[in-house]
């Protein structure tokens, strides 16, 4: 849903940019056309403008002097039916700002309608999307039944991989996630040739995040944990795939983890698993 909403916001932003570009091009077109007319026949343009001004003063054949006489107390000019019709035609033909405003309103209404249509389409698309969280939970339950596993929920706080390993290792002195973090970081540092080539930053800063922050862990960290604690790690996924991470020396001890991609708010998550017969 977050990815879908982000895509919709991007599409709306791109549409706004297109509309702004159309407004700019329209304004440039008007200015260019007006410049071409003035360059081609400036005298004719002035003549036509003068005629329009004169027509507005002598509507219906009434001269400006007649208006002056009327203001001085003379008889009001007489307008015939044809004169009134001509007056109305001239008024309606005069270019006015409301016409431009009406185009802007129409453009705004069209843009609003397009945005509303996008919102409706997004809502319909979201309604038809499968519930990935529910699907993953159901699939994981089926896989746990197949392999005879039970699950222990781990807090989704950024330490889940280390907490799940600490819970599953379960010695008499069970390590908490802090000890697991520190052990993994120190092992990586002491075996830098095995880990540094797969890191996108210096190993010193990478391992510092493991020890001192809630940085998420992944495959590299699981490799270090498997080796430092001499334990086979089985990571079960909802699709049935089991990723196996083994220590350098063969070990009979193993732990199970459940790996989720969609079921928890922070994203990827690990829970602890154990064989049901283990009590």
Automatic annotation (TrEMBL):
InterPro entries: OTU2-like_OTU, OTU_dom, Papain-like_cys_pep_sf, Peptidase_C85-like. It is an enzyme of class 3 (hydrolase). It comes from Lithohypha guttulata. This is OTU protein. Keywords: Hydrolase. Residues 97-110 have a biased composition (Basic residues). The keyword Oxidoreductase does not apply. Pfam families: OTU.
């Amino acid at each position: 849903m977050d990815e879908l909403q982000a895509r919709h916001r991007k599409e709306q932003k791109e549409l706004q940019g297109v509309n702004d570009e159309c407004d700019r091009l329209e304004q440039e077109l008007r200015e260019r056309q007006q410049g071409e007319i003035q360059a081609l026949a400036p005298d004719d343009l002035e003549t036509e403008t003068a005629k329009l001004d004169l027509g507005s003063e002598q509507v219906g054949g009434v001269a400006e002097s007649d208006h002056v006489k009327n203001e001085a107390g003379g008889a009001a000019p007489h307008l015939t039916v044809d004169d009134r019709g001509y007056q109305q035609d001239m008024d309606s033909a005069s270019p006015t700002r409301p016409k431009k405003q009406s185009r802007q309103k129409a453009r705004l209404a069209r843009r609003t309608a397009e945005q509303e249509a996008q919102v409706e389409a997004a809502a319909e698309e979201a309604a038809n999307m499968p519930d990935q969280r529910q699907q993953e939970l159901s699939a994981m339950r089926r896989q746990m039944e197949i392999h005879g596993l039970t699950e222990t929920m781990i807090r989704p706080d950024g330490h889940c991989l280390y907490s799940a390993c600490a819970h599953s290792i379960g010695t008499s002195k069970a390590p908490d996630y802090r000890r697991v973090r520190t052990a993994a970081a120190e092992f990586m540092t002491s075996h830098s040739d095995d880990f540094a080539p797969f890191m996108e930053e210096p190993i010193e800063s990478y391992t510092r995040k493991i020890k001192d922050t809630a940085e998420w862990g992944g495959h590299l960290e699981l490799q270090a944990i498997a080796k430092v604690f001499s334990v086979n790690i089985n990571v079960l996924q909802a699709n049935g795939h089991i990723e196996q991470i083994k220590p350098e020396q063969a070990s009979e001890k193993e732990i199970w983890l459940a790996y989720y991609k969609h079921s928890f708010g922070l994203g990827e998550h690990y829970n602890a698993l154990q064989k049901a017969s283990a009590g």
